[in-house]
Amino acid sequence: MATTHQQILQSLRKKDFKPVYFLHGPEPYFIDSIEKFIEENALPEEQKAFNQIILYGKDVDANTVIDNARRFPMMAEHQVVILRESQMMRELKDLETYLKQPQPSTILVICHKHKKFTGKKLLDLASNTGVVFESKKLYENQVFDWVQDHIRSLGYDITSHATNLLIEYLGTDVSVIVLELEKLALHLEKGVTINEEHIEEYVGISREYNVFELNKALGLRDIAKVSRILQNFSANPKRNPDVMVIGSLANYFARLYQLHFLKSEPDSVITKALGLRSSYALREYKQALRNYPLSKTMEVISTLKQYDLMSKGVDYSSTGKDESALLKELVWKILN
C-alpha cells in the first residue's frame, strides 16, 4: 500500500484508485497536492459535471457526505467526492459507518489539514479499505533532499549551492518553495541544471549578497565582505527583512554552539547532528569555530535573541533611524 506522497501520486498516475483517501496532518502542501491530482485526473473532463462533488466540512454533516458518497456514478466508472476542511466538521467520526463498507465506484477524498487526526477507529477503517496519509512538516535536515527530489520530478536538476540558497532565503515552508520552483520552471527548458545564476535571475535572490553568504563571512570574520553584504541589504530592505536575516544568523550560531560539544566526534556524526549536507559545509563551520570560542558563541546567541525581539518591535523604536540600522548594530556587536 502506498504510504508516502510520491508513492500515492505514482499509484494515482497508473489509475489505481482506492475507494477512500484520508489525508491528514500539519503540512497542507502534500494534502493539497494529492487532492488536486485526483480532482484533475480521476475523471475525464466531460464526466466531472455529474460525477465530481466538492464539499466543505463547515457546511455539511456526516449524513450529507455519506449520501453523496453512496450515489452511483452517471454514465461513468467512478464518481469523486472531495471533502475539504474536514477538521471543521463536528461529526467526522460518524463517517465510520460509511468507511466500514464504502461504495466501490466512489473515490472519497477526506482532507483534514493543519493538524494530525487522532481518531484511531476511523483511521483503521479508512486504512482497511483505502489510503491513509499523514502529511508531516519536513525537518530542516530533510528539506535539502526533498527540494532536489522535487526538482527531478519536474524534469530538472539543481546544484547544491542553488538548493542551499533557496532554503536559506525561503525557509522550510514547502508551499513557498514549490511556488518559486514553479516560477523557475516557466523560464527553463526541461533537463536544465538549475544553478545560482538561475536563482538570482528568476527568483530574485542574489547569489553573492544573501544570508547564506553573510553567515559564512561572519564565520570567517571577513569584515570587508560583511560590509559589502550589509550595504546591499540596506539598498534592498524588502528582499532582506531583519526578521529573516536574524533568524538565519540564529540558526547558524546555534549550529556553532552544538559544534563546540561535538568537535571530538567523527565528521559523519557531526554532519548528521548539525543537519549539514556535506563535509565541505562542515569545514566552513570548523573554521568559524576558531573565531568564536564557546563563551563568545553564547554571547552572540544571547545578543541575537535580544535583537530578534527588537526586530519585531519589542523595546525598540526605529524613529529617525535608517531601516538597516538595527542589523548593522547587531553585526557590529557580533564582530566586536
What does this structure look like?
This protein is of the alpha/beta class and 336 residues long. It folds into three domains: 130 residues, P-loop containing nucleotide triphosphate hydrolases (Rossmann fold, 3-Layer(aba) Sandwich), CATH 3.40.50.300; 64 residues, Orthogonal Bundle (Helicase, Ruva Protein, domain 3), CATH 1.10.8; 125 residues, Zinc Finger, Delta Prime, domain 3, CATH 1.20.272. It is built from 17 helices and seven strands. A five-stranded parallel sheet has the order 2-3-4-1-5, with helices on both faces. β3, α5 and β4 form a beta-alpha-beta unit. The protein is elongated, with a radius of gyration of 25 Å. The termini are far apart.
Could you outline the blueprint of secondary structure elements for this entry?
Blueprint: H1 5-13, E1 20-25, H2 28-41, H3 48-51, E2 52-56, H4 62-69, E3 79-84, H5 96-99, E4 106-113, H6 120-129, E5 131-134, H7 140-153, E6 157-158, H8 160-170, H9 174-187, E7 193-194, H10 196-203, H11 211-219, H12 223-235, H13 242-262, H14 267-274, H15 279-291, H16 294-311, H17 325-335
Parallel strand pairs: 1-4, 1-5, 2-3, 3-4, 6-7
Helix pairs in contact: 1-2, 7-8, 7-9, 8-10, 9-10, 11-12, 11-13, 13-15, 13-16, 16-17
